[in-house]
Amino acid sequence: MIALPWIVFALLAVFWTGGAWIMVALLQWVMEALASGAASQAAREVAPLQLPEWMKVWIDPDWLPALQGAVQSAIDGAGAVLPLATLAAAWLVPAVWVTWALGMIVLLATAVGAHILVRRFAQRRAGRPPAPGMA
After folding, report:
1. Which among 55, 48, 54 has a CA at the least distance from the CA of 69?
2. Is the model's pTM score more than 0.70?
3. What does the alpha-carbon distance between residue 135 and residue 115 come to, in Å, rounded to a whole number?
4. Where do the structural domains in the chain lie, given as residue ranges?
5. In terms of CB atoms within 10 Å, which of 44, 105, 111, 116 comes out highest?
């Protein structure tokens, strides 16, 4: 029973770390795509595409030109701030890892608290008084 909080901590830590790692990889990929102009090129290639038949039920075909224009202008606007993209990457990646560290501290504190509570309840259930300083 005492191992349960630590097993939960380990699982959550793995998922938390994996999520942070994926976020960093995604940020770096997006910044590279913006810096190389690949995102703008992809938007230009997607803009003239027609709406599939099954999607016409969900989106009015008359809205498609406006939607494509909005996506194109958003990509062009993102291309205008490319010099800022490298600056953003310079602080976004460390911000992800600082957030990861704060989350790990919270997870660790929660695991320690759960360990103490489980230990206290296990001692009371066994009929032994809690250890000094644990009462």
Report:
1. 48
2. no
3. 14
4. 3-125
5. 111
